[in-house]
Design a protein that fits this description.
The complex is a heterodimer. Chain A is mainly alpha-helical. In chain A, 70% of the residues lie in helices and 0% in strands. The chains are: A mainly alpha, B alpha+beta.
């Protein structure tokens, strides 16, 4: 019997896991993240620091900006990439996702469907990044970790991201399909 | 049997599902729709919707990370 037909291979590596399993694992991983780094899980805040490091490397001075004067952000910028556990976890997410598709043998380079799709992805990505900074976090740092730490701001975020997703859905149906 | 094809390669969720719904609404009972997708989450939401509607659905992995979803419009 080839490994492709093995029931354990199919259950654990090939087929998607149930949402409930994912939810429980995310909860446990967030707890271990909080214990080991002293910080609840976040994703996009660290991208801002990545961009600031790039800007520093070409002679910019982002440390003078208000955002990087804030204590936590200033420390992250000063400590550098290898000392920032959350930046390393972002890399881990990317490599983990790659490993999962490789193990399921579903990795493929997808073709670009249209320029509309490219423009939508770039504009959407920039708006998401900008919005995540204005709200001090993305759906992980603010929604997921916010709700998990019993903070009201996570729930407020949830209400508004729901409205945003609803509008986004309308735009998708109207212009992109 | 009349077969219709829908190419959804390179298209992320929920676009394949929306396109499938649109296409199927213009098809007659008994016709078959074959949807080609390379986004694995279409493997969940298209069958889920088809089962709810009572359509017959079958999935074949034709290549690594590439699937054909067969839908029969039963009514």
């Amino acid at each position: 019997m080839s490994i492709k037909d093995n029931v354990y291979y199919k259950t654990f590596l090939k087929e998607p896991w149930p949402y409930a399993v994912g939810a429980v694992l995310l909860g446990l991983l967030n707890i271990s993240m909080l214990i080991s780094t002293g910080d609840a899980w976040g994703v996009t805040s660290h991208f801002a620091t990545w961009a600031a490091w790039i800007y520093q490397s070409i002679g910019g001075q982002p440390e003078a900006w208000l955002y990087f004067q804030e204590k936590g952000n200033a420390a992250e910028l000063a400590n550098g990439f290898l000392k920032d556990m959350q930046s390393l976890s972002d890399i881990g997410v990317i490599f983990g996702a790659l490993l999962a598709t490789l193990l399921a043998s579903q990795f493929r380079v997808k073709k670009i469907k249209s320029w509309k799709q490219v423009a939508g992805a770039i504009i959407g990505g920039l708006l998401m990044g900008y919005g995540a900074r204005l709200s001090f976090g993305c759906n992980i740092g603010t929604l997921f970790s916010g709700v998990a730490s019993m903070s009201l701001h996570g729930w407020v975020y949830w209400v508004f991201i729901f409205i945003g997703a609803w509008i986004g859905g309308k735009i998708l149906l109207r212009y992109l399909i | 049997m009349i077969e219709q094809r829908l190419d959804c390669l390179g298209e992320a969720c929920p676009v394949p599902l929306i396109k499938a719904k649109k296409k199927l609404s213009n098809m007659k009972s008994g016709e078959v729709l074959i949807i080609k997708v390379d986004h694995s989450c279409a493997m969940n939401n298209i069958p889920e919707w088809a089962n709810k509607e009572g359509y017959h659905v079958n999935i074949k992995e034709v290549d690594l990370g590439l699937w054909e979803i067969y839908l029969i419009k039963t009514k």
